[in-house]
Amino acid sequence: MPNMLEGKVAIVTGAGNGIGREIAIMMAGQGAKVIINDVGASVSGEGQDATPAQQTKAIIAQNGGTSEISADSVAGWASAQKIVQAAMDHFGRIDIVVNNAGILRDQIFHRMTVEEWDAVIAVHLNGSFYVSRAAATHFRQQQSGAYVHMSSTSGLIGNFGQANYSAAKLGIVGLSKSIALDMSRFNVRSNCIAPFAWSRMTGTIPAETPEQKRRVERIMQMTPDKNAPLAVFLASDAAKDVTGQIFSPRMNELFVYSQIRPIKSVHRSEGWTPEAIAEYALPSLAQGFSKLERSGDVFSWDPI
Ligand code: NAD
């Protein structure tokens, strides 16, 4: 199946670095015309630099592909609409949205500031909504389209110092699942990837203890390009029956995640009191808690 995205137009946000760059390159290599969106911010979301997006464009051109740059931020409704408009202006249509742009403002929860919260929610959660919503009008008109959103195991499981990021990333899962339901009538699909990659974003993970060192060595082997084939597949017509799902590529493994459903129930005909929950329900429900949820050593890079 060569050129799985022939004739399609893709927007990849945050395509100037890391995972987004590799997705943009592979999508162009599979025949898509690509809008490389990136403001060229630091990991914490500060500053602007045109160079990363230009570098991605140069690589795509070297490979014989077609792309254009949009340097507008995903984190505002007006600028997000410009990103989608860039696809219409340059290529006359829009078929694929990859919501990948991201920043980090890690902070232990009791010290997290409102600014740290707002900045991360603005780029990840609001940005994913804005770009998706702007594209939805076109997807509805043409009765087709595919969304691929970057979530994270930090959201699916939780992670130290990342309440802002985790909330945004689990919020993106809810966004994707509801888009999948609302837009299926227009032949539009929406899926999430919880990626793994050694990038500038993960480059700051501490490697002090032997266990941390081993973990970091493992992550360093997970190059960002390992995430691109899954994004291409999910964006292609070969995934026409796949929607509302969450996947992970980890090196050469692919995971699909369970959908959150009740896993254990207890019934009491006279109803529950707080005391009865403590005495009767908890011992039974606790059998359903996962090992990770019980453990004090949850770490988002070990999802299973
Ligand atoms: P990265 O820092 O290498 O790249 C992120 C890009 O987003 C940067 O080029 C940056 O300039 C751009 N960006 C930031 N704010 C923007 C804005 N407002 N508008 C447009 N562009 C903006 O990060 P990465 O590691 O490649 O991560 C890509 C995505 O995958 C992120 O959403 C991240 O949260 C997610 N993710 C990554 C990992 C991992 O292992 N690297 C794990 C889980 C989730």
From TrEMBL:
Signal peptide feature range: none
Name of protein: Short-chain dehydrogenase
Residue span, Ketoreductase domain: 8-204
SUPFAM superfamilies to which the protein is assigned, alphabetical: NAD(P)-binding Rossmann-fold domains
Record SMART domains: PKS_KR
Superkingdom of source: Bacteria
UniProt record similarity statement: Belongs to the short-chain dehydrogenases/reductases (SDR) family.
